[in-house]
Specification:
Layout lengths: L1 H10 L41 H11 L4 H12 L1 H9 L2 E3 L6 H13 L6 E5 L6 E4 L5 E5 H6 L2 H16 L2 H14 L5 H33 L2 H13 L10 H12 L4 H10 L7 H13 L2 H6 L25 H8 L1 H21 L1
Parallel strand pairs: 2-4
Antiparallel strand pairs: 1-2, 3-4
Helix pairs in contact: 2-9, 3-16, 5-7, 7-9, 7-10, 8-9, 9-13, 9-15, 9-16, 10-13, 11-13, 15-16
């Protein structure tokens, strides 16, 4: 895909070393491995090292669909890639050595840690504490001003590591498609909007899994579990003037209480997340802690991770993802050729008509 080719120009010039085995470390006890006096860099690390199984399986189903890249370009082309960029950056400042140089330095450090070319970064004046990575050939990151105000430099390191991971995993391409579906499907011809609804819901489910994947990469960027959890706390309920006051252990307790609920509570939790692009922060905290104590985080810190070009194979069906998706999303991803091409092509046509009008 174009996004992959563009991002891999520099990565391809690096030595491919296969899976590294400089040493093994395992998390022990009940608390995650936390803290590192000197951050480790991961030369030639593949996104497969941190990707959630459902994330990888869903994207594999789409990437192997003949002509899907062409269909996405039809959709983006109906708006124009330049216009997509302008939607996100027209009211934003581009970060660089002379504009918010501290943020630029953090981004450079994070990109070096994850061994990836430094992407463009923008800061947008936005009250919601969030960030995002979008784009097609040259994905970029938008950091909301509220998140900058509420976060410490290390918490921003986690956030930027998370967003760089979206680019490495090629999530930005699909997130751009999801953005266009969410923004414009209602304005399209009603029948077209109905046709893309299953795709939109399936992509929303995938995006929530992708967030879990990239939280892991954010942890690899900052290499301190409590800092990563604190950054998620900021996005959940950070308050200006009370920066640094979030109790991460209390947040963990809240996360466990939410995750352990059963019965009717489970139904309401599902309904509450069905239309969301992101999982609730308390769920992300629990998932990140589980990954940190599971041993994989410690192994990667010890130098044992999947290198680019050495990714394990994935089957064409969703069996690798287990029951991580709803039945409707499973149907879309396992029968992608029946759902995607015609519906998205019709959506692209509707967008063109809207643009002309």
């Amino acid at each position: 895909m174009a996004a992959k080719k563009a991002g891999n120009k520099k990565a391809a010039s690096k030595k491919t070393a296969g899976k590294k085995t400089a040493g093994k470390k395992r998390a022990t006890g009940k608390k995650p491995v936390s803290g590192s006096p000197k951050r480790v860099s991961f030369n030639n690390i593949s996104a497969a090292s941190w990707e959630h199984a459902t994330d990888r399986a869903a994207l594999h189903a789409l990437r192997t669909l003949p002509g899907f890249d062409t269909v996405i370009r039809k959709v983006v082309g109906a708006i124009g890639e330049r216009n997509v960029r302008l939607i996100f950056t027209a009211q934003a400042l581009e970060v660089g050595p002379d504009q918010y140089p501290d943020l630029h330095e953090i981004l450079k450090e994070v990109s070096a840690t994850l061994d990836w070319p430094v992407p463009k970064l923008y800061v947008s004046q936005t009250p919601l504490a969030n960030a995002g990575a979008v784009g097609v050939d040259n994905p970029f990151i938008v950091l909301n001003s509220s998140l900058v105000e509420l976060s410490s430099p290390d918490e921003l390191r986690f956030v930027l590591g998370h967003e760089v991971a979206h680019i490495i995993s090629e999530h930005a391409l699909y997130r751009t498609l999801l953005f266009l579906l969410l923004q414009f499907s209602r304005a399209a011809v009603p029948l077209v909007g109905q046709a893309v609804a299953p795709i939109t819901l399936a992509l929303l489910e995938w995006n929530r899994k992708a967030e879990v994947s990239c939280d892991r990469a954010g942890l690899l960027a900052v290499q301190d579990v409590d800092t990563a959890v604190g950054a998620l706390g900021v996005m959940a309920g950070g308050v200006r003037g009370r920066e640094g006051s979030i109790n991460v252990e209390a947040l963990r307790t809240q996360s466990e209480a939410y995750s352990d609920s059963e019965g009717l509570d489970t139904f309401f939790k599902f309904m509450a997340t069905a239309g969301r692009t992101h999982p609730f922060p308390v769920i992300r905290v629990r998932e990140l802690d589980r990954w940190a104590v599971g041993g994989e985080y410690a192994r990667i810190l010890g130098g044992e991770f999947v290198a680019r070009g050495d990714e394990p194979p994935l089957r064409d069906d969703m069996s690798a993802a287990g029951d991580g998706f709803s039945d409707s999303a499973q149907e879309v991803f396992t029968n992608a050729d029946e759902y995607v091409s015609n519906a998205l092509s019709a959506f692209a046509g509707a967008l063109r008509r809207l643009a002309r009008d």
